[in-house]
Write a structure and sequence with these properties.
Blueprint: H1 3-23, H2 28-41, H3 49-74, H4 80-103, H5 106-126, H6 139-156, H7 161-170, H8 175-200, E1 211-212, E2 215-216, H9 217-237, H10 243-266
Antiparallel strand pairs: 1-2
Helix pairs in contact: 1-2, 1-9, 2-3, 2-10, 3-8, 3-9, 4-6, 4-8, 5-10, 7-8
């Protein structure tokens, strides 16, 4: 691997951590499109570009998820009984989602990712919150919701915050606690997703060196080492910068990166 790409991975991790701290969302929206582009530049197999980007992004989220979980737990913002009840569905859904992603080719994965991120960008611009219209369901209901959240999270390599937070707010959980609980849920999503992508890519013979399954470890280590330290910086900046304006700019960035990903994938098939 060229040393210059290691530098790119470090920069990507630093930027992802800052944005994650600023807006409280996972880094998949940034990491997946950029990783896809960087993997093309390294001339990695075209048919596995998106699979590798999703898997690598998911694995890189693990340390950041741990740091976020600890921070929210220290502020008593995690409803652990909810985490315990939703976690089984999260684990099963995310793990199953990696099998679905591995079955699909790069093109439909790229289309789904781009459409989903466009929806996230629209939600950030409109800033609409769901109305608290019901109470939290029981264990079966929470686990079922977790399964759906897990499947989608595996397909777009997010920690689940864009789905878990609205669901919990809809179930009459206050926003700060919903964010903290979602942060705790992000860890099983990342672990199950990374494991699933490792298993699904285990028998692939045309993957580059330094991979375990679909996970490309030089990128994981470089990105995680930077995002772990820059995410707290982003959280501090969130109290000093004009967040509404930044959210609109970030939404444009998400759309731009998603369009770039489509161009990268369809231009190299």
């Amino acid at each position: 691997m060229d040393v210059i790409f290691l530098f790119y991975f470090l920069i990507l991790g630093a930027i992802t951590g800052i944005f994650a701290g600023l807006f409280g969302i996972g880094g998949g929206g940034i990491m997946v499109p950029v990783l896809t582009f960087l993997f093309v530049q390294q001339q990695y197999p075209a048919e596995h570009l998106v699979h590798m980007a999703l898997a690598t992004s998911m694995a890189a989220i693990v340390p950041t998820a741990i740091a976020s979980l600890r921070a929210h737990h220290q502020h008593n913002a995690v409803i652990w009984p909810v985490v315990m009840k939703i976690a089984p569905g999260i684990l099963v859904g995310t793990f199953a989602g990696t099998f679905l992603a591995s079955y699909l080719s790069a093109q439909p994965l790229a289309i789904f990712f781009s459409c989903f991120m466009a929806g996230v960008a629209l939600q950030m611009v409109l800033n609409r919150k769901p109305h608290a219209s019901r109470q939290l369901p029981g264990a079966i209901g929470l686990s079922s919701a977790g399964t759906g959240i897990g499947v989608i999270s595996a397909l777009v390599a997010i920690g689940g915050g864009t789905l878990t937070v609205p669901f919990l707010v809809w179930c009459n959980v206050s926003l700060p606690v919903a964010i903290g609980t979602s942060a705790a849920v992000g860890l099983p999503i990342a672990l199950s997703g990374a494991l699933g992508y490792i298993i699904n890519g285990w028998n692939e013979t045309n993957l580059p060196g330094y991979t375990l399954g679909y996970v490309y470890w030089p990128a994981v280590i470089a990105m995680a080492s930077m995002s772990f330290f820059t995410a707290p910086l982003g959280a501090k900046l969130a109290h000093r910068l004009p967040i509404p304006l930044l959210k609109k700019l970030f939404a444009l960035l998400l759309v731009g990166l998603s369009l770039q990903m489509l161009y990268t994938v369809f231009g190299h098939q």
